[in-house]
Amino acid sequence: MDVPPGVKGWSWGAFWLNWVWAVFNKTWIGLLALVPVVNLVMPFVLGFKGREWAWRKGSWRSVEHFRQVQRKWDIAGWVLLAAVVVVAGVAAFVANRPYSSAEPIQTTQESRPEGAELPKAARSDAPYPLPRVGYTPLNLAAAMIEAGIDGPWPSELESYLEEPKDYWRKCVEGGMSFSNRLGGLKGAEAREWAEQSCRQTASDFFECLDGKSLAAGVACIKKVTDEYGQTGD
């Protein structure tokens, strides 16, 4: 069948929509676009020869009718491409948007949202500022043990967050005993030294944990406890 002027030309509809375009235009060779490897070449073949094949396979009222239909396919192909680009862009934005923490939020009943404060009842009577954390004291203790922070530190940090009044009492009592035994301090002097030491320790813990991820907090605590071990505090 001779192809009249105005039929031949590049087909964006056949290029972008390939096998779908081929089915509706009865150009069955276009189904090769479904075959692996061949599908890398077939869109270009359809783009170049598609209009000519479609003309020969279809029952068109006129050349103008054919061109109108193929123009719609071209528009549909570009619309599909635009939609794919938009969806890919949104997906990339969602996948790469910044998070407040690299740590996954715990999903157990004990967990708190990232950045959540401890219960107000525990904060209201705490003798020192408590950090804002997004994990439970038990999570912290377990992560410390896993990081090789041994001895009394995991349980002390758990008590520091969960039972601040009890932690403070034990810290001051232990500090007074230490200052009395090794420093020869008595009474008010021993208590003043112990409270100052405990305030410094609580401040170090606060700096390590406040608003930090679990991993960052544990790394900081490890550094602090290593320094304590070297100084004998």
The total count of helices amounts to 9
The overall pLDDT, averaged over residues, is 83
Q: What is the rounded distance between the termini?
A: 97 Å
Question: Quick one: how many beta strands?
Answer: 0
Beta-strand residue percentage = under 5%
Strand count, sense and closure of the main sheet? none
Portion in helices: 55-70%
Helix/sheet category: mainly alpha
Would you summarize the structure shown here?
The protein has two domains: 12-96, no CATH class; 120-231, no CATH class. Helices cover 64% and strands 0% of the residues. It has helices at residues 12-24, 42-57, 63-96, 120-124, 137-146, 153-162, 164-183, 187-209, 214-231.
Would you mind describing this structure in some detail?
With 233 residues, the protein is mainly α. It contains nine helices and no strands. The longest helix is centred in the middle third of the chain and has 34 residues, at 63-96. The radius of gyration is 36 Å and the shape is rod-shaped. Mean pLDDT is 83; it is low at 99-115.
Write the layout of secondary structure elements.
Layout: H1 12-24, H2 42-57, H3 63-96, H4 120-124, H5 137-146, H6 153-162, H7 164-183, H8 187-209, H9 214-231
Helix pairs in contact: 1-2, 1-3, 5-6, 5-9, 6-7, 7-8, 8-9
Essential attributes:
9 helices, single chain, mainly alpha, 64% helix, 0% strand, 233 residues
